[in-house]
Design goal:
The structure holds two protein chains of two kinds.
Chain A lengths: L4 H8 L4 E7 L5 E5 L4 E2 L5 E5 L5 H11 L4 E7 L2 E13 L3 H13 L7 E12 L2 H9 L4 H4 L7
Chain B lengths: L9 H11 L5 H12 L1 E3 L1 H7 L28 E4 L4 E3 L10 E6 L2 E6 L2 E8 L20 E5 L2 E7 L3 H4 L9 H10 L10 H12 L7 E6 L8 H22 L6 E4 L5 H10 L3 E7 L3 H7 L1 H6 L2 H10 L1 H4 L4 E5 L15 H17 L2 E5 L9 H4 L7 H18 L18 H4 L4
Parallel strand pairs in B: 1-4, 8-9, 9-10, 10-11, 11-12, 12-13
Antiparallel strand pairs in B: 2-3, 2-6, 4-5, 5-6, 7-8
The chains are: A alpha+beta, B alpha/beta.
Amino acid sequence: MKISLELKGLLEDPESVKLLTTTDKDGVPHTVLKGSLAALDEDFLAYVELFEGSRSQKNMLHNLWFKKLVTIAVCKGGLAYQIKGEPYRFIIEGALRDSFFKEVWKRMPEANPSGVWLIRPKEVIDESYETQLKKEQDRINYSIWFQYLGRP
Amino acid sequence: MEYKFLESKRKEEFDIVCQKHPNAPRSFLLKTDLLRRGLAPTEPAMKRLQDPYYEHCPEVLFQWHHADRTTDYKVPGPFCFNDGTCVWFILSPPPYDPYTLDLINDEFWILSDGEPLEEVHFFKKPEYYDKMTTSGVPMQKVANLGGPDMFYFCQSRHCHSWSEGLQCKFCDMDYNAKHQMKMGRGFKIRITPDEIYETTCEALKEKGRWRFMFLTGGADPREKFERELEINISLIKAITKAGKEILGVDRLPLNIIMTPLEEEQNRRLFDAGISGLGNYIEVWDKEKWKLTCPGKEKNIGYDKWIEKTLKAVDIFGKGNVVCGFVPGIEMAPPPYGFTDIDEAVNSSLTGYDFLLKNGVIPVGSNWSVMPGTEFFKMGATPPPLEFYAKLDIGRYELMKKHEIGILAHQWYYKHQPLAGHVDWLRLL
């Protein structure tokens, strides 16, 4: 599954809202904001994990070990995507770790991040209002049966 | 049925242990088995590893390999899996039925009977590695990469117990020193304060990389360890001075592994800049300890060893004193070890529980049967993988029980490629 240019741009936009949902060993979801989330290239998403002991970190490890997908939601204005992906690698050393950490330290010099997660998208769902609307409108006789009557 | 390592099949044994412990992350068990069975790299993998981008192990302290390394190829020290689990690179001869390191699509992978198990990543060489001290010593011989964000110093590659034939039965320290000299791999037995100061300065210039460092080396019991302590304090002061000059900090995250000392001596270590202390008892069972560590028995004694280790908590604080073991030697050939897995595991867990109750963290590096050691000469082989699975899970349960996982972070998964217990801390 490739990451489109539009999605890449949305992830790079500092005004975008970016959420990550992981699950624990009992399947309980856990959602957090991940400002550092970015598209590394066409194939991988990446974000910095700030804490070794965070629930997200534990869930990500669990999801990696037991091959469970995680979900990322990103939106700004009318644009919105949901990405189902598999945790692929936790980077603890090397150039990529250094470049992500550098960005974190610009904003949070006191931080001691634990590493950089790579996520490989398996499915990208366009959740934009326009796209969803079009899907609805494509249903047979939408204009007859799906209109709220007397809308203001 | 008696376990015979040399007759056991790698894949079969690994699969059985994975099935028995479905909640254990497979990467933890694989790491343990890699340390036990070792690696046999293919020619293309070894050629690729010669790239100067990678760190190559300076081979000080211990050899770790299960056979003498006599090849010209340089070998790395630590590497990691995709989940960040760090493993030490241990070479093994064919009877160990080692795992294969090969390239798949130009990436490094661990394979078992041709089946790719884990993609692995080798670390970049620290920037100070190729620099020299003014005395002409390569800095990599002074400070060695021990993990992605950790380096360590081996201040003395000679343990005085070897002079009397009283070295610990699993230890290859002096043998390794001689072996490396024979192989013409630049070697130095002791390092000086100037060398350690210059090297630390250079290392710390790689800002944002390091989180932890430690000192270790051979023991010198003369004058109640006062000579060794004085030398160590001069080295610690040199390291601390480098931290002050390069980073502007008064203390570095510095640990030392030493023989247990008197309270006043520990205070001097702390004042010089040590924040974490390691007193490595190696094995818990008293009678087996006497047999396995005759030098320690002669110079300190079992009861004193424990008493002093516990007392050190008063100086360094709860969780900052660790007691090291060599997991695996509980199953060394009798009378040094037990033959029954549960008996061996329970013996150590009793010790871990006692230590944790007293604010001391049980740590250590898994046993590697190395050439030059007494156990190697006896024909010893590693214990079953099941032993390690039970021991590490048992220790994890104890850490949970005592709720002090967070305090043990001086030895965390990024700092200990030679044991599995650190990885379990990630689940706490």
